[in-house]
Amino acid sequence: MDIFYLNNSRQHNIYVMFRSIPFSFFIYLYCDCYIGNLVKYKTHEEKITRPIEKFSNAKTKKRVSTVEDDCPMITAFFTFLSFGVLLLVGYIKEFFYPPSTKEKNREGYVPLYIGFESFYTRNVYRRIQHCWGAPICSVPGSRIEVIERHSVDHGWSLQPTGRKMNCLNVGSYNYLGFAENVGPCYETSAETTKTLGMMTSSSRLELGSMRILEELERLMSEFLGVDDTITFGMGFATNVLNIPSLLGPGCLVLSDEFNHASIILGIKVSGATVKVFKHNDTNDLERLLRHHIIHGHPRTRRAWRKILIVAEGIYSMEGTICDLPRLIELKKKYKAYLYVDEAHSIGALGPNGGGVVDYYGADPKDVDILMGTFTKSFGAAGGYIAGNKDLINHLRIRSDAQSYAASMPPPVAQQILTSLTILMGRDGTTDGQKRIEQLARNVHYFRQRLKQLGFIVFGDDDSPVVPLLLFMIPKLTHFVTMFLIIFCVEFSVFIKELWDRGVASVGVGFPATKLNGARMHFEGCG
Questions:
Q1: Which InterPro entries match (predicted)?
Q2: Which runs of consecutive H residues, i.e. helices, occur in 280-425?
Q3: For the domain 184-424, what is the CATH code?
Q4: What pTM value is reported for the model?
Q5: Domain residues of the chain, as ranges?
């Protein structure tokens, strides 16, 4: 362990976290996640003999990504068996004791909760819901205070115990540490609150357009290297309310299968025809492009009004980085438009924090629509769309987010302005560049240590989103399934173990992933 270059307290905390976990815990996980999956997954046996470097030059060095294959047969069997036991017990219980809760004076009304979703919530999610939604009571910095909760009714409700747990924060998207209550971001935002107030309470097309928002849009355009930028008060709504302004019936959308829910919802609202290509598979994308250009609209056989390729810079569930050069090549070859969602990559990827475009050294003007959010790297809220002036002028008039949604609050805009100024070095310091490089070092260190310990880690080596595969949801929580009890095997459970050791992280399982795709999500290792 002495060969590792630990140059800050955050890396030291991560190092101590691994040293403090019992050896038996890793023996179990090693056997299950490494030996059991050796047939399906290529393992990495890299040895770190020098300090971790900052982001590699993506144009000259091929990115290394864990092979994402199907779940091994034996692991899938045990996963489905554990779910089957839970569901079987649930069906038996509800056969003898059917749910009978009804609202008073509601005779003849349709039940509020019906179907399998309600059954799944009662019999599966209820047992593990304490793993999510834990209230916090501090700034989400490198360390975070989380309120401990417990249940006295077998998971139906969670009550605070009054204890505050001070934890290492590897579960929020505060990639660069700008969400803080000290320093220039805090000071300038507080001053803006005094002078401009908390909120305009109006849309941009009415009385919600302030000078600070125009200044933010000018600086963001300069940072991204584009003609113009438009900002919005909510990141999710940036996709949902703007995609319908760009698409409509008669348009074709080619969407990555792991695109965010906001993209999917925006495409649905638009009424455009959507075809899904395999994750990060540009060959499958080209096949779909050729097929649908040749055959045209499935009903009329006429040419498409518009063809839009939609991808993300970094995919939040997989930790993978899109193949932007290939996407640009296909976009030019088939005369399509390219929409890239940089919610997770802006600020956190590339030598200058410019996102996936900066990471590959691509020309920003080759991407027709650059979308991103301020909720991750900038420690704020809201989103933006950047591109040429014609595009932005169109959105200023046609976007529902401009017409009906409240504009971004002035303190939030100031938070983004200050953090952006620091990233661009306009504050006269190198603090922004240091944050970017520190994030890259921490990400490389964390990923390589996990691989050396035998864990299966998805995603690209430069990605700040680190999914650690567990496959089974029972491993995410503190309860042990009946199947495991029968075999007298007491498994240490990941989230509970991390909480007990002062590490705040997030678990992800079905239906956010496949049934056998449960995983831990480590973010913001900066």
A1: Aminotrans_II_pyridoxalP_BS, Aminotransferase_I/II_large, AON_synthase_class-II, PyrdxlP-dep_Trfase, PyrdxlP-dep_Trfase_major, PyrdxlP-dep_Trfase_small
A2: 282-295, 324-333, 355-360, 389-398, 400-403, 410-423
A3: 3.40.640.10
A4: 0.82
A5: 73-103+110-169+470-523, 184-424
Neighbours of 24 (CB within 10 A): 9
Three-state secondary-structure class, residue 324: helix
* Token digits of residue 226: 């584009």
Q: For residue 341, how far is the Cα from the chain centroid?
A: 11
